[in-house]
Specification:
Blueprint: E1 13-14, H1 16-23, E2 34-38, E3 44-51, E4 64-68, H2 83-93, E5 98-103, E6 110-125, E7 130-138, E8 142-144, E9 151-153, E10 163-166, E11 182-185
Parallel strand pairs: 3-5
Antiparallel strand pairs: 1-6, 2-3, 4-7, 5-6, 6-7, 8-9, 10-11
Amino acid sequence: MEHPNPAVESGKAYDQAGIEALFETGFGYRISGINVRNDDDGNRFVLLFAKEGGPYNDSVSMGEFSYIGEGLPDKGDQSTDSLGNAALIQAQTEPVPIYFFYQGEHDDGWVYQGLVDVADHELIHDGDRTVLEFTMHHRAEPSETEETGQQTVSQPENTAGTRVTRDAGRHSGLGGVQAAGLRSIR
């Protein structure tokens, strides 16, 4: 498989079967948050998912955003040793393609948001337990201008000062890392 996968379109919504076909993988019953995969050549990549209304308090926006690691709240503190968390920690110093998908509350599918990189991580206490908070950056994607045919680099939207918080009344039955009842405040 070529990375980045040229068949995946930024801004396009995919269902689970479509994502499985694009990445030649299977999720089983449902999609979880951090999915570590290897292609046929043994190259590692990650499929990363966040869902509005899920059990985590991710702050998801274009540019830089925070992402809470894997490990459901009812399972206690998160670990740096779980497969998904360890893969994201390693990707901070040894980057791999991380394909980021987001599903809003009223979306039928998972919208591909582009490739992201891990900038930092830290263990924090969220009031109930210790969680891993990853600082993620959207990669700038090259695009071609219609007038000149030359490549330019699109810059992510500036979202400084925007924070997405959890609406405690909503939870999803989905496992993995997903955004929790998101509402944006400034």
